[in-house]
């Protein structure tokens, strides 16, 4: 039982020491009880200590009066000290028991030191000692010298109050730093969650927009073959269109599964699965060719950091999707990826008509710009001067991520 109560008592004592006296609960009630206890001690000292004559009626009145202001010592510490001094000074001048009001005086001095600035504490200490010495000189030189001898107790009380004040400030600073660190961790966690949601949204947009666009184009091809000349049905062309649709669905399903793995793996929040890279660009070009685009691709970089490769892959994917969707029938699309001075220069241009005016803008261009920013790059997109549309991006490459320069295969195809 003792092993449980002792730590609890110690914690309560430390909590009382660390608590700011100006904001402590039930301050007036607790200080009134303290004033009553100090008054009882003062009565005992006046009755049993022979340090002057026993107080008369006026002396008792002054002794009791000096304890009343202690009930408001935390709210107005300096005024309380002045009120106590105003009662104690005539009390000592009448040569009553000089030890009796000492507890009330020390409590008031401690409160001034623990709630005020150091300069004010020093000035108060000097003033109290000077005033006490002056009052005792009216009684006798012996009493004045005695006050000077015990002035060390006044200094000790003031020093204790100032030390407790600095200790409370130190504890408050530690608590504030801990709370700020906790808030920073929470903000960092929220930022990471927001970034992960944005990444997943971009991946899903690129994946679904690309796949659905290709499926729509391939379905249109199959429907056109079926309705153009039903009597001379080209079964081979229809079968190939349906096979292309099935292959696009399988690829989309695989990428979708990889993307959603992030939401399922709670134990490893940083696991993002394999990122698409530059090695997947030929597949994007081939898929665009199957959708009817004439794609010409030039790649003059063999290796890039995974994040840069993934960003380039998604930008090319979205640009090809937009070209297939908005550039008109059988657009000519050129894809260039070239490294110059540690920067990947990416360009996707077409000779199409561009999006229809007045249409509802999507999130494709916004997503491409965000992907470029995630690796420290920039992206511009807009109509070309000689017709068509162009997307250009500058993606910086790190030294470790830059591979040996080389010329990739240049492919051309007509859908």
Give your account of this protein's structure.
This protein is an alpha+beta fold and 415 residues long. It contains twelve helices and six strands. A six-stranded mixed β-sheet has the order 4-5-3-2-1-6, covered by helices on one side. Strand 2 and strand 3 form a beta hairpin. The N terminus and C terminus are likely disordered.
Main features:
rod-shaped, 6 strands, 415 residues, disordered C terminus, disordered N terminus, alpha+beta, 6-stranded mixed sheet, 10% strand
Helix proportion: 55-70%
Low-confidence stretches: 1-6, 266-272, 399-415
Profile the largest sheet: 6 strands, mixed
Number of helices: 12
> How would you state the average pLDDT, rounded?
77
Order of helices and strands: HHHHHHHHHHEHEEHEEE
User: What is the beta-strand fraction?
Assistant: 5-15%
Total beta strand runs? 6
Radius of gyration: 43 Å
Strand order of the largest sheet: 4-5-3-2-1-6
Question: What spatial form do the alpha-carbon principal axes imply?
Answer: rod-shaped
- Structural class, from secondary structure content? alpha+beta
Determine the N-to-C terminus distance: 87 Å
């Amino acid at each position: 039982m003792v092993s449980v109560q002792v730590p609890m008592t110690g914690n309560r004592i430390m909590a009382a020491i660390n608590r700011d006296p100006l904001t402590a609960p039930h301050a007036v009630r607790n200080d009134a009880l303290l004033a009553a206890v100090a008054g009882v001690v003062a009565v005992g000292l006046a009755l049993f200590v022979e340090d002057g004559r026993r107080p008369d009626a006026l002396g008792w009145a002054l002794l009791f009066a000096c304890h009343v202001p202690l009930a408001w010592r935390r709210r107005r510490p300096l005024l309380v000290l002045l009120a106590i001094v105003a009662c104690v000074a005539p009390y000592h001048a009448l040569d009553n028991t000089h030890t009796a009001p000492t507890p009330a005086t020390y409590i008031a001095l401690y409160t001034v030191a623990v709630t005020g600035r150091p300069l004010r504490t020093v000035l108060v200490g000097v003033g109290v000692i000077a005033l006490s010495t002056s009052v005792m000189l009216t009684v006798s030189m012996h009493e004045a010298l005695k006050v000077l001898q015990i002035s060390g107790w006044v200094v000790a009380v003031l020093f204790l109050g100032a030390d407790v004040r600095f200790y409370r400030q130190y504890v408050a600073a530690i608590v504030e730093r801990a709370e700020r660190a906790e808030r920073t961790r929470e903000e960092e966690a929220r930022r990471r969650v927001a970034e992960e949601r944005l990444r997943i949204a971009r991946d899903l947009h690129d994946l679904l927009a690309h796949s659905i666009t290709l499926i729509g184009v391939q379905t249109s091809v199959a429907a056109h073959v079926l309705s153009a000349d039903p009597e001379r049905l080209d079964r081979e062309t229809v079968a190939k269109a349906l096979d292309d649709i099935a292959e696009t669905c399988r690829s989309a399903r695989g990428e979708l599964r990889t993307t959603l793995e992030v939401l399922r793996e709670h134990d490893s929040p940083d696991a993002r699965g394999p990122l698409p890279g530059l090695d997947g660009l030929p597949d994007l070009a081939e898929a665009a060719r199957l959708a009817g685009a004439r794609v010409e691709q030039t790649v003059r970089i063999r290796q890039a950091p995974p994040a840069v490769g993934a960003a380039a892959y998604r930008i090319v994917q979205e640009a090809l999707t937009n070209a297939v969707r908005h550039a008109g029938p059988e657009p000519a699309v050129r894809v260039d990826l070239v490294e110059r001075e540690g920067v990947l220069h990416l360009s996707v241009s077409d000779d199409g008509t561009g999006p229809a005016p007045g249409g509802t803008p999507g999130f494709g261009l916004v997503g491409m710009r965000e992907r470029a920013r995630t690796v420290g790059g920039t992206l511009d997109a807009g109509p070309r001067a000689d017709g068509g549309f162009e997307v250009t991006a500058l993606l910086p490459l790190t030294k470790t991520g830059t591979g040996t320069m080389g010329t990739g295969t240049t492919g051309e195809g007509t859908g």
